Amino acid sequence: MLRSMYAGVSGMKGFQTKLDVIGNNISNVNTIGYKKSTINFQDLLSQNMSGGGANPMQVGLGASTGAINVNHNAGSSMTTGVGTDLAMMGDGFFIVQNPDDVGTDVGQYLTRAGNFTVTNEGNLVNPQGYNVMGFTNTAAQGDDFVAGDLEAIVINPNDYDSFSINRAGEVIGKAADGTETILFGLGISNPENPTGLNKFGGSLYEMTGGASALGINAQTVEGANTSVASGMLEMSNVDLTEEFTEMIIAQRGFQANSRTITTSDEILQEVVNLKR
User: Fold this and answer.
1) DSSP assignment of 112-145
2) Range of the domain at 243
3) Gyration radius from the chain CA atoms
4) CB 231 within 8 Å of CB 81
């Protein structure tokens, strides 16, 4: 009876965690670049009742959380018409860096949220003010892009009246006389195991050893085998129909486990009453 009560408690804890995951997914249904999480359970150790017989006699001791994984499937795209809004078409992540950590790779993060803006100094930044990173164009003039060093994307307003970003991830500056020059190529990171990334908050991810042993390995958009859509944003990949279905399952599972505890308590009460 005590085993069944403890098993019921472990089940209730597990389904409570499942409800926490589902609630977070639903709350981020309209978050740009958000990737939903999923939870899996596994059984706990089993108690051996007897060593005899052809087959082992065991009683399980409940369930526990096996894994909480992030589903990195692409979300739907939303047209905004804003030139600095970028959507990743394919695998990979944008690279942003904390301006306080310029010159190091400690403050670099990955994101799928492409709602970028330009500061009055010409820096392309995300909503947190982190610089969007790209490769400088080492070619003297702009038809052929030659990747140089990875650095913050800055479009000098004194040199260029406007700029645009094409599907190849090239940042093209346009001067007052109409001359166009390829200034940067967007830096893209394509981790070996995106599920191993650590959520940092603000739609940012930290690189971990489980995601890639090489750290943030930057490459151009073409090298990442993807493309960039300007004037669009990638929305959350949360499916409300699926989340509500999982919520019903979690709710019923929580109720069933609480019923196990209630029934075990009733049986235990009957045992106590045998003395009377």
Assistant:
1) S--B-EE-TT-BEE-TT-PEEEEEEE-SSSSSS-
2) 2-73+238-273
3) 26
4) yes
**Rounded-to-integer distance, Cα 247 and Cα 91, Å:** 29
Same domain, 218 and 109: yes
DSSP codes of every residue in 200-247: EETTEEE--TTT-TT-S-EE-TTTTT-EEEETEEE-----HHHHHHHH
Q: Which tokens is 50 given?
A: 């007897």
Q: State how many domains the chain has.
A: 2
What's residue 116's pLDDT? 96
Other CB atoms closer than 10 Å to residue 99's CB: what's the count? 14
pLDDT, position 5: 87
pLDDT, position 22: 97
Residue 89 CB-half CA count within 13 A: 14
DSSP-assigned letter for residue 53: S
Residues 226 and 91 in one domain: yes
